[in-house]
Amino acid sequence: MKWEVTGADRNSGEEKTVIIEAxxxxxxxRRGNRAGLMVSGCRAIDNDDSVSGVTAPAxxxxxxxxxxxxxxxxxxxxxxxxxxxxxxxxxxxxxxxLKNGWGIASVILAAIAFVIALVPCxxxxxxxxxxxxxxxxxxxxxxxxxxxxxxxxxxxxxxxxSLAAIVLALAITSALGSxxxxxxxQAQAAQQAAQAAQAQQRAAMRDTVAVYTADQVVNYYANxxxxxxxALKGKMLKVEGDVDRVGKDMLNNAxxxxxxxPGTFRSVQCFFNDPSQIGSxxxxxxxxxxxxxxxxxxxVLIKDCEIISK
Length: 310
Fold this sequence. Notes:
Layout (H helix, E strand, L loop, with lengths): L1 E8 L5 E7 L3 H10 L2 E9 L19 H8 L5 H14 L9 H17 L4 H27 L4 H54 L4 E3 H10 L1 H8 L3 E13 L5 E5 L9 E5 L13 E12 L1 E11 L1
Parallel strand pairs: 4-5, 7-9
Antiparallel strand pairs: 1-2, 1-3, 5-6, 5-8, 6-7, 8-9
């Protein structure tokens, strides 16, 4: 239906009359206001106007003077083009493009979470919370979009991207944890293999090393400490003698002292990594001890010892 809308131009103040197509008078007045008129009158007309008795002109969407100048310009500015587009949208009854802020926020959070997820360890701490928030924003954007006709593409991208970031963070952390566990097992296996090889080597040497009495070992150091170190320090040897004392030092290390000849204050002190080996020894017991000579420090020290015979 056509309506004759009259009013003053907002820019020039000139009284104008335009013909607008609308469903009712209220819609016609509203479109007239949007077209730049301060509407003062509005009446329905048709091609055979019963009021004026003359044929009404064809309905032409009204363009304000400033819009006409922008259109006629040889190189319209972006602002003028935007005005023309807005007037055309009003004349056609279209609304401005809608946005979905929830979806846009979801996309931003998903992108940040995805980048953080690529960082080992930190990704699990940062990507999962951001991914959860981004996913929630995406779901809210989808609900609003489908309920009110807003765009939903960004919401879909944000929701799926947030989920992907969480999955990526979990996958990288899981792979890293598996790698650390595998490396730990390999290191433990290598250590056990080295200990087994050392034990085999120690057992093979045990049958070939020289046997010394406790007095002989003490005499090496009693005559010349340097000569004693040159002869015994760092070497594996067997020491035979009677037990003088079984005890522990200030650091709680278990040891056995062998009796020495009268007239010397030094003795051979043998330290054991496994105290259970000497639990049955007592003063006066005879023992053959295998270990490594560690030099003189008050007594002649033998480390890493084990009982060969009692």
